[in-house]
Amino acid sequence: MIGKTGSNPHWGLSRARIGLQRLRSKLRSPLVGSMSIITVAMAVRLVLQIVVFGIVAGSMGATQFGAFASVAALAAIFSSFSGWGADQLLLRRVGRAREELPKAMATSMAFVALSAPPLVLLATVVVPLAIDSSIPWQLVMFIAISDIGFARVSQIFGSCYQAVGRPMGTLRLSVGFATARVMVAFLWVAVARHHDALSWSHYYFAISMLATVVSVWRVRRELGPPHWEVAWHEWRDGFHFALQTASQQAFGNTDKPVIAALSDLSVAGLYAAASRIVAAAGIPVSALLYSAYVRFFQVGVAGPRASARLAVRLLPVGVGLGALGTVAILVLAPLAPRVLGHSYIGTDAALLLLAPLPVFRAVYSLGLDVLVSTGHTGLRTVAQIAMPPVNILLCCLLVPSHGVIGAAIAALLTHVSLAMAVWMIVGALVRQQSTPDPASIGVGKAANGTPVS
Question: Where are the domains positioned within the chain?
Answer without folding.
Answer: 29-252, 254-434
